Automatic annotation (TrEMBL):
PANTHER family: PROTEIN ABCI7, CHLOROPLASTIC (PTHR43575:SF1). It holds the Pfam family SUFBD_core. This is Fe-S cluster assembly protein SufD. InterPro entries: Fe-S_cluster_assembly_SufBD, SUF_FeS_clus_asmbl_SufBD_core, SUF_FeS_clus_asmbl_SufBD_sf, SUF_FeS_clus_asmbl_SufD. Belongs to the iron-sulfur cluster assembly SufBD family. It comes from Mumia zhuanghuii. One of its GO terms (biological process) is iron-sulfur cluster assembly. Residues 121-351 form the SUF system FeS cluster assembly SufBD core domain.
């Protein structure tokens, strides 16, 4: 008789999960999953800061076919339906401290007539709070859900995303916080057989934003697109960590994140990891991260990873690039009479345009284009970027 199948992820990138915060040691900054995060700026979310703050407002605009409600934790029947188990101390503390669960449910075989919007506005950052969101797309449904974050807050949360068989779901989360906000979140998606998820993370605001996004498959044939866009100004720390667990056959995943940085001590972190288990035969996956450094004094860390346990796959690859403006692009535009400052602006817009277009939500697309314009206008030094760098290959690692 065969022994039990090992399902735990054995990797230094993925500590064993637990709902009990005591099972997660207080980070010291030396751990692989914390080494890029400035712990002193977390306002003790990783230690023992109370998570009982309620300085926020929630406004919803729900598609008529979709059901949204907020219920006490003890009355929730869907919390934990994604099978997620917290993998770090902040996530476990948020799970324990959240007193309500906000749910968005798309009934089976329903096609939503418009996106559902959840607008979260923080009204103070002195008291930390914890939240829990569950988005469920029942079998063969189709919908888009947008979560917008504004204002000042110190916020820890877990977001569960559950797709039934054949469901099609787009989830967009926009971190447009005030400059003093600290936001630490974990998004986890459970993707059913032949279901399709588009997951989009956009980070512009906040003092420190750290978001983990993970995916696992509940059946064969699941498809996942994970898109990301971020723009860091002076002093900002924006960190995104992605994990795709190909635990079922014939799945597909594509991860594409793009970021820009400007100003002293602007710091972005992107950690991507794809695990292809022995069961993941016939899968196809690719992950990429591109960073555009607009000024001196900014730093982008980008680490793609592939963990492969079977060679019976359609394809697997990863890429990471970090560089400054492309002199050839600038020369091409300037040779056609476009002033240098305008040429640089066009290059940045071109860099982001594909990801913005693929969000699939027109209101978000228009807003992001305007936000990029606003970010560029913040820093006069964008016209004085060091021009003698090797633009195409400051850092590049590609695996196929």
């Amino acid at each position: 008789m065969a022994g039990p199948v090992e399902t735990r992820v054995i990797s230094h990138l993925h500590p064993e999960g637990s709902f009990d915060p005591a099972d997660h040691e207080v980070p010291k900054g030396l751990e692989e999953i914390w080494r890029f995060t400035p712990l002193k700026r977390l306002r003790d979310l990783h230690k023992d800061a109370p998570l009982d703050g309620h300085d926020y407002e929630v406004e919803i605009d729900v598609a008529p076919e979709v059901v949204a409600e907020s219920v006490p934790v003890e009355d929730s029947t869907v919390r934990g339906s994604s099978t997620y188990v917290p993998v770090d101390r902040i996530s476990a503390r948020a799970w324990e401290a959240a007193d309500r669960v906000f749910t968005v449910t798309v009934p089976a075989e329903t096609v939503a007539s418009k996106p559902t919007w959840v607008r979260f506005t923080g009204t103070g950052s002195e008291k930390a709070g914890a939240g829990h969101v569950v988005i469920t797309a029942e079998p063969f449904s189709k919908a888009t859900v947008v979560i917008d974050y504004f204002g000042s807050a110190t916020w820890a949360e877990n977001v569960e995303i559950v797709l039934g068989d054949g469901a099609q779901l787009t989830v967009v989360a926009v971190q447009d916080w005030a400059d003093d906000a600290v936001h630490v979140s974990h998004h986890h998606a459970h993707v059913g057989r032949d279901a399709s998820l588009k997951h989009v993370l956009v980070s512009f605001g906040g003092d420190l934003v750290r978001i983990n996004a993970s995916v696992e498959y509940a059946g064969t044939g699941g498809e996942v697109d994970m898109l990301g866009l971020y723009f860091a100004d002076a002093g900002q720390h924006l960190e995104h960590r992605l994990f795709v667990d190909h635990n079922k056959p014939k799945g597909r995943s594509k991860v594409e994140y793009k970021g820009a940085l400007q100003g002293k001590d602007a710091h972005t972190v992107w950690i991507g990891d794809v695990l292809i288990r022995k069961e993941g035969v016939g899968i196809d996956t690719y992950e990429s991260n591109d960073n555009l450094v607009l000024t001196d004094g900014a730093r982008a860390d980008s680490v793609p990873n592939l963990e492969i346990e079977t060679g019976e796959i359609e394809g697997a690859g990863h890429a990471s690039t970090t560089g400054r403006f492309d002199d050839l692009h600038l020369f091409y535009l300037q040779s056609r009479g476009i002033p240098e400052v305008e040429a640089r602006r066009l290059v940045v817009h071109g860099f982001f345009n594909d990801v913005i277009r693929r969000t699939g939500v027109p209101e978000i697309q228009d807003r992001l284009l305007q936000t990029v314009e606003t970010e560029l206008a913040k820093h006069v030094g964008v016209a004085d970027v060091v021009a003698d760098a090797d633009l195409g290959a400051v850092s590049e690692a590609v695996g196929r």
